[in-house]
Amino acid sequence: MAEYPLWHHRAHLPVPSPLTPPPPPTHTANKLPSISGAVAPIVDLNYFISGQAYHLAAPATQHPSTVALAYQLANLYGLLFLVGVGVLHSTSEPRVARNYLIACAIADVGHLYATYVAMGWEAYMDVGAWNALAWGNIGFTAFLLLNRLVYFSGAFGEARVVKAGGKME
User: Fold this and answer.
1) What are the sequence ranges of the domains in the chain?
2) Which residues are the signal sequence here (predicted)?
3) Are 157 and 4 spatial neighbours (Cβ–Cβ below 8 Å)?
4) What is the pLDDT of residues 62-93, one digit of tens each?
């Protein structure tokens, strides 16, 4: 059985296959949208706000509450990044990581729904017209959710803790 790191050098995920598939991307890929979501409003606030509903004309100026909400959202993305790093890189308990991933999967569904409500059915389903934010909000979030569901199904094997000396528990 091949072993792949799940979230830390002390925890490994056995994969029953002679092939060498990559480890599940649930922890590494989780950090990408979090950190980019935290930085995006700082880099280009107007694009971050208007890009959420790219199919509508952007207003000439942003309302102060819209700006506040964008920066608050960026702060939450930053928090998600820090919690992910803190939880997944400091625990040796598969149950802790699993609970974190369950919370992320629930949040994925909420994120997909919130994006759908903001964009509407036509724009949500018009994949060819998506901008970078739509790909992040829908495409990448759906990718993460799918990987979490596959992980929960046990397709990657059972998560185990590797104790000092390399023995599996």
Assistant:
1) 25-154
2) none
3) no
4) 999 999 999 999 999 899 889 888 888 888 88
